[in-house]
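Is this the right way to post structure tokens for a design question? Let me know if I should format differently. Anyway, here goes:
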């Protein structure tokens, strides 16, 4: 069980960063850059992700019910671009040259150099216009090393860093 203090210390302060959501899908892995991610509750730890309802990512989240969120560090702009590109290959191929590991609770890919990461299980699904909002319980906080770099943010159609 994750405490509210652990959640706040490791994730809540990064909740505005650019994130990559990854999901273990059978023999493959998928992932996508998303910009709508937020910390909703510290006790119990709950986050929100929003994805286009007609996307393959939404279809797989609905089917699997669990995923990992990687808050990208300031040095991971290229990864954000790779996961945002149309027609992208498997997440494993996109991360072939990046240190990563599988989350213990979800089996999803976790970027070792992310600013923060969490493994999540869907608690509630809400359709809002052309997007689906997932409220997800945080079930694990994998160790990552990119916190000192600060988060990557998106503003004015460009990736930027804070500070």
């Amino acid at each position: 069980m994750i405490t509210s203090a652990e959640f706040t210390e490791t994730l809540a302060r990064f909740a505005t960063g650019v994130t990559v959501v990854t999901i273990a899908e059978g023999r493959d892995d998928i992932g996508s850059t998303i910009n709508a991610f937020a910390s909703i509750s510290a006790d119990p730890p709950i986050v929100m992700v929003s994805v286009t309802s007609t996307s393959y990512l939404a279809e797989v989240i609905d089917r699997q019910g669990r995923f990992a969120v990687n808050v990208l560090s300031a040095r991971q702009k290229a990864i954000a671009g790779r996961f945002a590109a149309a027609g992208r290959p498997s997440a494993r191929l996109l991360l072939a040259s990046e240190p990563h590991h599988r989350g213990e609770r979800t089996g999803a890919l976790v970027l070792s150099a992310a600013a923060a990461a969490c493994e999540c299980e869907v608690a509630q699904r809400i359709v809002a216009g052309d997007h689906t909002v997932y409220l997800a319980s945080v079930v694990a906080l994998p160790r990552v090393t990119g916190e000192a770099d600060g988060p990557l943010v998106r503003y004015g159609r460009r990736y930027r860093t804070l500070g």
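Format looks fine. Someone answered above. Worth noting: The domain at 4-161 is CATH 2.30.110.10 (Pnp Oxidase; Chain A). The longest helix spans residues 56-64.
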